């Protein structure tokens, strides 16, 4: 069994390359609009839990890449569309490399949790969990602040 506690929320946006066909469609995009185009998905890296997917439609063509950096690069290259954390997408949206699209009925917040095996709770894990429980660290990890540690301490 895992021990789990909430950490906060992470905001996601649906983005495409400016040259992607979905970029030219009016907002909000429907599921049918999106289903006609390939999604880019970062591979699930969990070792001990069943694989999960998020933000994909049943029957949608999917390009799975090894991680988030590869997902961002694939979407900038126009190889597909998908959700990215605002923290990762914002600089590319500002630079015009990605276009944010509104989606019908989409929720953009995802809850984030700390999870660990309590049977393996040694001093190093306790130290790590204590750091992740600090509000300044949580704000940084969740993209709510630009720097860590915060300027005021």
Question: How is this structure best described in words?
Answer:
The chain is α+β, with helices and mostly antiparallel strands and 153 residues long. Helix content is 27%, strand content 24%. It has five helices and six strands.
Q: Secondary structure elements and their pairing?
A:
Elements: E1 3-16, H1 31-35, E2 39-42, E3 62-65, H2 68-76, E4 82-85, H3 86-94, E5 99-101, E6 109-116, H4 123-133, H5 135-141
Parallel strand pairs: 2-3
Antiparallel strand pairs: 1-4, 1-5, 1-6
Low-confidence stretches: 147-153
| Main sheet attributes: strand count, strand direction, barrel closure | 4 strands, antiparallel
Main structural class? alpha+beta
The number of distinct helices, counting runs of at least 4 residues, comes to: 5
Strand content: 15-25%
- Care to count the β-strands? 6
Order of helices and strands: EHEEHEHEEHH
Shape: elongated
Alpha-carbon distance between the termini? 36 Å
Spatial extent as radius of gyration? 18 Å
The mean pLDDT is 85
Fraction of residues in helix: 25-40%
